[in-house]
Amino acid sequence: MAVADQNSSDYSRILGNTEHNWCRAVTSGTGVTVLALMVARPVSEASQSQFKKTLALLQESHPLLRCKLHYDGAGKNFTFMKSTATPLSEITVHDATETLRVLESNKSPEISALQKILEHEINNGKTWVDPDTFSCSGVDVAFAAVYAVSDTHSVAVLRLHTSVCDRTTAVSLLLEMLDLDSVAEGAPPMEIENSGEAEAALESLIPCALTKKNIWAHGRDLLGYSLSSLRLTNMEFINWKSPRKSEVLRMQMDKEITSHILMGCKNRGIKLCGVLSAAALLAVHSTKKGKKKYGVVTLIDSRSYLQPSLTSHHFGFYHSAILNVHTVKGTETLWELASSCYSDFSRFKTSNKHITDMADLNFLMARAIENPGLTPSSSLRSSLVSVFEDPVIDNSGDIRQRVGVEDYMGCASAHGIGPSIAVFDTVRDGKLDCMLVYPSPLHSREQMQEVAAKMTAMLSHGHGCGGN
Question: How far is residue 204's CA from residue 335's CA, in Å, rounded to a whole number?
Answer without folding.
Answer: 39
